[in-house]
Amino acid sequence: MCFSYYLGLRQKSEEFKASCLPPFQVTSEGISFHDDWPYAIHLLGHLYVDDCDSARFLWKTIPSSVKESKPEVVAAWRIGQKLLTRDYAGVYEAIRGYDWSQETKDMVAAFSDVYRKRMFQLLMSAYSTITIRDLALFLGMTEDDATTYVVKNGWIVDTASQMVTVKKQAVKRGQKVDSSKLQRLAEDVFHLEH
Amino acid sequence: MSSTENLITSIQGLSASSGDLSALHRILKGAEETLRADSDLQLSTLDQLDPSKHSLGYLYLLDVLTCGGPMSKEKASEVVLLIARFITSCDAEQIRLASDKFVSLCKGFKDRVLELEDPLRGVAPLLSAVRKVQVSTKRLTALHPDCLQLCLQAKCYKAGFSILSDDILEVDQPRDFYLYCYYGGMICIGQKKFQKALELLYNVVTAPMHSVNAIALEAYKKYVLVTLIHSGQFSVSLPKCASTAAQRHLKTWSIPYTEVGNCYNEGKISELQAVVVAHSSDFEKDNNLGLVKQAVSSLYKRNILRLTQKYLTLSLQDIANMVQLANAKEAEMHVLQMIQDGQIHALINQKDGMVRFLEDPEQYKTSEMIEVMDSVIQRTIGLSKNLIAMDESLSCDPLYLGKVGRERQRYDFGEDFDTVPQKFSM
């Protein structure tokens, strides 16, 4: 069972979601397993797919003996706590604030990457102008790195006022509808009228 | 050969076809008393049977062996493992012949798992048990509430949510239904699916009942809080379809909650917080303090949402003043969170310290939206077909027709209508 986690680590993509075995599937035989389970990676897996509630429930079920003996699990949860309290900059601090083991390093890096992209999308949809200082906090970078990052995406930086103007990206959403869907809609309307 | 050995042979021989199985079932029912009295019967006897092929026989033997009183932790652990394996591998057709026995076996399994304080072990087996004993996805079984209870204890909310997705239309025992809706509501609250939680809790609160029961009371308390979080409006009077017992008594037993509701309607955060602090021991006793806190923080969002309906642009400082937040930065964070959650559409302009409220950009033209509309329409069509079928069967029901006949005497429309007979002889 641990193997699928390591495979997931190497894939570093949405497929991790599928390969993430919830503990209860393993315990369909009714066996106990708590000491060997890779809780840190499990928590990070939930955070990777932006499911903070599942991470919170998982944390509640972890026995206190595991919490006391494995500081990495506590460190992984700290990231979750920052996400739940929407301490956007605090997430990066929690990521940087621990010396991750070989097994979890890749997972943490993958999460950090996906979180930064999510923050970038959020800034694009929520702000028309933002200070360089706040930008750096949201993206977890130095002010110079942050401005370089956004300039690549077409944003405009004004160093005099320390402000950045956001450039929206048009989102392409499929509008092509094939005939079978139209047929179904026509049948639905027929049913509703009779 | 002893009677137990005879029985084993019968089980092995008669488990193939449905005709054989009914004969076997009669034999098993007859032999139950002797089995319970047989002191030589051990768990190892079960090794002679295959749970997937001899499910019916295995079920009877397992029930006799495990229904005993308190047992040691090791024995309980062994029993739990054995029942879990049986549930996963048994044949659904066979166990449906003795569904009451299967249900009582599973309930015993749930109790043992809770005694061992390891509810996680029971979640997957009970999920599969529900699917196997269920005759159709529209029928509620006695195992649904037990499964949800274990999911809640083990904090496997996603697993519990998977059995809530069916539309339940047929119910045998009211208590099962109340518990199903109550636990289901709690699972939805955990998953932050407040719309569905509201539907389930509404079902308990408005269910027919002669007198208020504890489940309905607890459900009402959560119902009040979830209404505040989801729709932001509280009304002290229950929907008209609720029973008179519920309408009269639920409020009197949940005064702290109705006070929170009334205060929420006023819209003042500081007053609401004062009410919450005053009753915090009651909320804690009911395990509802977390939900109450969610309701309080939803008031900020509710107030900001009201602003979007009145203004096109507003400064962050003005928002902070109107919604009773400490400063403009806090207002900015609240607005940002609401944008992240999709509750409003707005653009924050830090240069001017202003927020511009926007319209919902959804134009309902995309193929994903068509899929969503299609599935909702399909579900509605399915439900309306069920409703028509229920209406037809009700209008043929003798009890209903008898009552209608009695009522009709009062409205005398003349000789044109035949009177409906008061009793039907069948």
Automatic annotation (TrEMBL), chain A:
Query: Which InterPro entries does the record associate with it?
Result: COP9_CSN8, CSN8_PSD8_EIF3K, PCI_dom
Pfam families on file: CSN8_PSD8_EIF3K
Q: Which domain of life is it from?
A: Eukaryota
**Where does the protein principally reside?**
cytoplasm
Question: Where does it localize?
Answer: Cytoplasm; Nucleus
Q: Which GO terms describe its cellular component?
A: COP9 signalosome; cytoplasm
UniProt domain PCI: residue ranges: 2-187
Q: Give the UniProt keywords, A-Z.
A: Cytoplasm, Nucleus, Signalosome
GO biological process terms held by the UniProt record: COP9 signalosome assembly; protein deneddylation
Q: Does the keyword Nucleus apply?
A: yes
The entry sums up its family as follows:
Belongs to the CSN8 family.
List the protein's name: COP9 signalosome complex subunit 8
